[in-house]
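Regression check, flavin mononucleotide case 178:
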Amino acid sequence: MDFDEVVKKRKMIREYQQDRQIPTGILNKLLKNAHRSPSAGHTQVQEFIVAIDPITKKKLCRASLEQSQVEDASVLIVVCSNTSRSVNRYGKRGTEFYSVIDGAFASMIILLSAVNEGIGASFVGAFEDDKVTKILGLPVHVKPIGIIALGYPAEKPERFKRLELNNLVHYERYDRTK
Ligand SMILES: Cc1cc2nc3c(=O)[nH]c(=O)nc-3n(C[C@H](O)[C@H](O)[C@H](O)COP(=O)(O)O)c2cc1C
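Current build output:
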């Protein structure tokens, strides 16, 4: 698909066809693309937990304010940042700030790749960190950044209006009159 088209089409999809699973080939493609993400100082902190087991999905749904797309998804990719690879170089900035950005970059690549493959995806950031950590058995230095729910779309949600771009772009200095 044309890149601009992918960006234009991207929209969080939260309802999925229950009788259609995502083929392993496509799942692997999403992971391969995410693996190409940038990371601060090439620390490559991003790691991915793939959850397909309905019991795991149910538990993660409970840990994410009962958001149904987490349970209904064909597959979940939980994007994590392994801060043990960045803490020595960047200290607190690495563990608290770069880790989130690195995870977010990888997540966006998954969201865009999903559109390109005709897959619906939803990023879930509202979850209880300690519960997700326990469910997935994450070591203390591996931080969950986002749960990405994936499945073939069963909805066509309306597009949200965006704020006027003109009011959000500033040249040279912040324009306080905007
Ligand atoms: C950091 C972050 C956290 C988010 N957490 C959730 C979430 O927990 N549940 C959800 O349904 N959507 C979540 N979203 C998706 C946003 O609600 C969505 O991107 C926004 O409403 C704009 O819609 P669109 O992406 O479909 O254009 C999150 C998005 C971001 C960037």
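Comparison notes: The mean pLDDT is 97. The chain is about 40% helix and 15% strand. No diff flagged against the previous build.
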